[in-house]
Structures
1.
Amino acid sequence: MVQLELYFKLLKCTLERIGGEMFRTKFIATVTDTGEGLQVTCPDIENLYILVKDKSELEGQCRRIFSEMSELSPDSLDLLFNFN
C-alpha cells in the first residue's frame, strides 16, 4: 500500500508539471450486487472496499473514494463500471 501511495504522489507531481489537465486517470471497477448493496472492487487499488446502498449514489461515492485514495482531483478521473 505504501508503494502505491508513493507511486500516485509521484504521478500527481509529474502530471502537474506537464499540465495535468491534459491527462485523465481511468479506473475500471467491478460492481457486484451482494444483496446488502453494490460492492465495488478495482484491481488498480489494493484494499479497496466500497459498499453502496443506492445505485444512484454509485458514481458519486466511487469518484470521491477513488479520488482520495489516488490523491487526484475527482474531476480528473474516468470511471468505468463492469456489472456482475
Note: Helices lie at 2-17, 58-70.
2.
Amino acid sequence: IVYKTEQMQKSLIILLTILASITQGISQDLQIPKSLKVNEAQFSLNNVERNGFAIMVNGDSKTILKSFESFLEDAYKLETKYKSHQLIGEELMNTAISDKHVGLYSYVNESGAGNELRFFLNFGTDIYVNSGAYPAESEKAKEILKAFVKQFYSTKINEEIAETNDDLKDDLKDLSKLKGSIQDELKDKAKAEKKIAKSEEKIAKA
C-alpha cells in the first residue's frame, strides 16, 4: 500500500510505536521465570526458625498472599485468614494433603532478589512438616506452591492480554477515524485536480 500523504505515514509510525510499546510492556511486567523451583529450608516464622518451603514469585506481596488465599480455598477447601501480612489456618483437614489435621502459615519475604512466598505446615506447636519425617506432606507442599505460581502467572497473563486488547481496540478506532479523514482529504484533492485540469484545458483552447 502506498500512502500518498505525510499525515498517513506519521499516523502509521505512531500506531506501530504504540503496538511495540504495549508488547514490550507485557514481557517486561510479567518477568515469568523459565522454571519453578521450591526451596526447603529453615525460615523465620514469628521470630522462630521453622522448617518450611519457599518459591520465588514476581508480583506485589499483598496481591500474592491474597491470591494464595483464594487458591487454597478453591483448590483445597482450606480456609485461612489474612492477618499481620500472614495467612494463618488452624486445624485444617484435607486428605489430599494429609490424613491429619494441619496448621498452616504463609507469608512473603521481600528482598533485593525478589519476593519469596514461604509456606509452612505443622502438626502442632513444634512439629513442622519436613522431607525427612513427613515426605508425603512435604511433596504435597511443594506441589501446592508450584500449582499456585502457575495459576498466578496464568491469571496475570490473561489480565495483561485483556488490557492490551482494550488498548488495541481504542488504537484501531482512532486509526479508522484517521483513515476516514484522510480519504475525505484525498477525495477533495481529486476534485480540485479535476477542476484545475478543466481550467487548464480552457486556457489551452483560448
Note: Helices lie at 6-30, 61-76, 135-205.
